[in-house]
Input
Amino acid sequence: MAQISMATCSMSDNWGFNSAGQSPCEIGSALGGVCTGGSFILPELPPNNQYQGPNSTVQNSCRCSSVYYSLLSACAYCQGRNYIRWSSYKANCDVVYEGSFPQPIPIGLVVPGWAYQDVKTRDTFNASLVTSIGQGDHLIYANM
Output
């Protein structure tokens, strides 16, 4: 079985990272893992490839969330790749969660505020918001 390499951001200025130093790829993998029992890896994107939306057999509430889509798009962008439109991404989702993540955020995971952006109006992820919002975190959960 081939080893899957975890996606890493190649941008030098920590673009899209949260205040805990986690990349959009790491945060996206963690949120994707919420619906798969904690095991989920966003693979590195080869040149001229994009992350696709879930097909009908793997769609779930985590992957059908605009927050996850934003993190996935940011992960593609920070690898120097393109991302698909929101309407194409969510096409196979039975239920779509726009502006929210429908499951509990894992303890210790910091989700940046830009991940909650409105992707419906423009039908796409807005990478410029990442820079303008910066590392402002939307939700912070810590072990108490």
